[in-house]
């Protein structure tokens, strides 16, 4: 809410702004003001409400007063006293201007009537709100959002390009390292070939340049992974060795027990044969009893 001072003849271009507990708040020159408290704004002050921003341009009120009523500027300041005391002012009324500005308003500087009339019309349009009737606020907000979106996209593109450049530099360094290792191995192979004497080694058995081993430079992460892999392999091999040793000891223990008690095996064999004979004898006896039938009985005294 933008409002001039109470007495327009004493304002000298003073305007005050108040924030009525808005959601986004009101900022004056980038600083958020307290709600329900009048703050003075002058010409050139940046006023921002949410996404809308204005550059305040305030013309002195003496020009507008001289254009409307030339005799008003010559009247003494005592003719228009402030009837309301400071304690009885309403809650949202702007503060009174200081006395120094009142004395300055008593002796205004005359201004050209054309400029004063234009300033008066412009101030009336701004106060009445007619200046915003032809403004497309939705288009302004859409353009503001589009500009913010383009800025975010540019930042994302710059970051992705920087990452791509860094990855390309690392790949080039790795390829250069591999190429230098290959050239070093080739040069060492050529030096050995020139210094050694010619032997009767077959061509097929001679090592070629491609078969020459190269020492690959590992990164710290690859070294850690290689060490962990070697440690796991060592643990696995140790477990296999222990398992094989336990199996060998079990076989030896079984063989030793069999060699120390040979009578146990013989007793098992004899008991098995005796049990088999007993089962067969019992079966034959039952078969004979079944075939022979009941025993004959002699009964005396049958009539």
Overview of this protein structure:
- It is elongated and about 175 Å long.
- The protein has helices spanning 61-68, 99-106, 113-128, 137-195, 220-260, 262-292, and strands at residues 2-4, 15-17, 26-28, 31-32, 39-41, 46-49, 52-55.
- The protein has six helices and seven strands.
- Helix content is 54%, strand content 7%.
- The strands form two sheets. The chain has a four-stranded antiparallel β-sheet with strand order 4-3-6-7, with no helix packed on it. It has a three-stranded antiparallel β-sheet with strand order 1-2-5, with no helix packed on it.
- Mean pLDDT is 70; it is low at 7-11, 73-88 and 192-198.
- The longest helix has 59 residues, at 137-195.
- Helix 1 crosses helix 3 (113-128).
- The chain is an alpha+beta fold and 303 residues long.
- The chain has a domain at 2-81 and 89-133.
Features:
four-stranded antiparallel β-sheet; elongated; 303 residues; 7 strands
Q: Quick one: biggest sheet?
A: 4 strands, antiparallel
Biggest sheet strand line-up: 4-3-6-7
Unreliable sequence segments: 7-11, 73-88, 192-198
Note the beta-strand portion: 5-15%
Q: Helix-strand pattern, N to C?
A: EEEEEEEHHHHHH
- Give the rounded overall mean pLDDT: 70
Distance between the termini: 148 Å
Relative helix content: 40-55%
Structural class: alpha+beta
- The global form is elongated
Number of strands: 7
Rg = 56 Å
- Per DSSP, the total helix count is 6
